[in-house]
Amino acid sequence: MKLDVITLEGASAGSIDLDEALFGLEPRADILHRVVRWQRAKAQAGTHSTLGKSDVSYSTKKIYKQKGTGGARHGSKKAPIFRHGGVYKGPQPRSHAHDLPKKFRALGLRHALSAKAQAGELAILDAAVMAEGKTAILAKVAKELGWKRVLIIDGAEVNENFARAARNIDGIDVLPSMGANVYDILKRDQLVITKAGVEALEARLK
Fold first, then answer.
1. 3-class DSSP state for residue 168?
2. Which residues have C-beta within 8 Å of that of residue 167, sequence separation ≥ 6?
3. For the chain, what are the domain ranges?
4. Which residue stretches of the chain are H helix?
5. How does strand 190-194 pair with strand 150-153?
6. What backbone phi and psi angles, to 5 degrees, belong to 179?
7. Is residue 94 over pLDDT 90?
8. Using CA of residue 81, residue 85, residue 91, residue 94, what is the dihedral sign?
9. 7, 25, 104, 121: most buried by Cβ count inside 10 Å?
10. Is the pLDDT of residue 177 over 90?
C-alpha cells in the first residue's frame, strides 16, 4: 500500500510503499486483546498484601473455655471471623506476568499497525529531527498538523532535540522502533512513523 510522506512543516515529501504484511492485515480484536492483556499483566506491580491468621498481632491465648458457654468453640481471636482477625486467602505479593509466544507478540504488533492504517490514523513523517529542542516550536507544529494524542515512532534512535521538545507536551509520546508496542499504539488517536521507523519495523517484524 502507498502512503504520502509529510515533513514537520506539513509539506509533501513524496510517497512510500508500505509492506502489506505489516500494514495491510485485517485487524483481529482477539489477537490485540491477548497482547494488551499480556503487556498490562507484565507491568502490574503485584505488591498487594494482606495479613493472614499467623501474621496479625494478637494474643494467642484461648479466648474462652471450650465447653459450657453455649457458643461455638474458639481458640484464637486471630481467626478470620473476628474483627481485626487475619484475612483468609487474601492477596499476597506476586508477579502477574504470564507467557505469550514471541511470534504471537510480533503478530499482535502487525495487527496494531494494520488497525491504525485501516482506520486512517497512520501518518508517515520524513524525519523527526529538530535543530533545537524547543517545546514551543514543536507545540506549534503539532497544532498545525492536528496532533493531539499521538505516538511518534522513530528509527533505532530518537533525535535528542526532538525528544527534548516533545517531553513537556501532553499527548505527544516518542519511541524508538524497538520500543513500539501494541498498547501504546492503540492508546493514541494517531500513529506517526518516520521513514527510518518504517524501515526498522519492517526489518524487525519480517
1. coil
2. 135
3. 2-42+101-205
4. 20-23, 29-43, 102-118, 135-145, 160-166, 182-187, 195-205
5. parallel
6. -90, -5
7. yes
8. negative
9. 25
10. yes
Q: What percent of the chain has pLDDT over 70?
A: 100
Q: How many whole angstroms separate alpha carbon 75 and alpha carbon 85?
A: 12
C-alpha cell of 101? Answer: 509466544
Q: Is the dihedral of CA 165, 168, 173, 178 positive or negative?
A: positive
If you search the block for the grid coordinates 486483546, which residue do you land on?
33
Mean pLDDT over 78-100 rounds to: 95
Predicted TM-score of the model (pTM): 0.84
Q: Which has the closest alpha carbon to 63: 44, 79, 47? A: 79
Closest to 174 (Cα-Cα) out of 185, 161, 163: 163
Q: What is the mean pLDDT of the chain?
A: 94
Backbone angles phi, psi at 16, to 5 degrees: -140, 145
Protein fold of 2-42+101-205 = Ribosomal Protein L4; Chain: A; (3.40.1370)
Do 136 and 168 form a contact (C-beta atoms < 8 A)?
no
> What average pLDDT does this structure show over 109-138?
94
SS3 call for 120: coil
Q: 102-118 and 195-205 helices cross at what angle (nearest 10)?
A: 140
